[in-house]
From TrEMBL:
Residues of the VOC domain: 1-127
Source organism phylogeny: Bacteria, Bacillati, Bacillota, Bacilli, Bacillales
UniProt-recorded name of the protein: VOC family protein
Alphabetized Pfam families for the sequence: Glyoxalase (PF00903)
Domain of life: Bacteria
Record-linked InterPro entries: Glyas_Bleomycin-R_OHBP_Dase, Glyas_Fos-R_dOase_dom, VOC_core
C-alpha cells in the first residue's frame, strides 16, 4: 500500500491553482471537470510520478468548519519536505509569501509555516 493522493481543502480552486503552481512551483497532474468543481491535482516537479496533492473544494459545511478551526488554531493543514528550509523560506518571502513562523529548529528538524492564501497554513520541513 502507498499514498497516491492527499487532499487539502481550499476556498477557491482557481486561486489555489495559481498559488500552488505559480508561487510554489508544483505541476498540474490532473485537471478534470466534475460538476461545478474539478478533480485538480498537482505534483512535485522533482517527482512527477509521486503522490498527488488534490485541491479539494471546501463547499461542504464540515469541510469549511474543519478548515476554519485548524486555521484559527494555527495548525498547518499539511507539510512539505524541502532540502534547505532557510533557502526555501528566503525564495518564498521574495515571492510575497506570508510566513507565520520563520525557520525554527525543533530537535532534528527545522520547520517554517506560511499562509497559502486559500484558508490554510502549510508547514515546510527540513530533516
Amino acid at each position: 500500500m502507498k499514498i497516491i493522493v492527499n487532499s487539502i481543502f481550499v476556498e477557491d480552486q482557481d486561486k489555489a491553482l495559481e498559488f500552488y503552481s505559480e508561487t510554489l512551483g508544483f505541476k498540474v497532474k490532473q485537471d478534470v471537470p466534475v460538476g461545478e468543481f474539478r478533480w485538480l491535482t498537482l505534483v512535485s516537479p522533482h517527482d512527477q510520478e509521486g503522490p498527488e496533492l488534490l485541491l479539494e473544494p471546501n463547499n461542504h459545511p464540515a469541510a469549511k468548519d474543519y478548515q476554519k478551526k485548524i486555521f484559527d488554531d494555527g495548525i498547518p493543514a499539511t507539510m512539505f519536505g524541502v532540502e534547505d528550509v532557510h533557502k526555501e523560506y528566503k525564495q518564498l518571502k521574495e515571492r510575497g509569501v506570508k510566513f507565520m513562523m520563520e525557520p525554527t529548529e525543533m530537535g532534528e528538524v527545522t520547520v517554517a509555516v506560511f499562509d497559502d492564501t486559500c484558508g490554510n497554513f502549510i508547514q515546510i520541513i527540513q530533516k
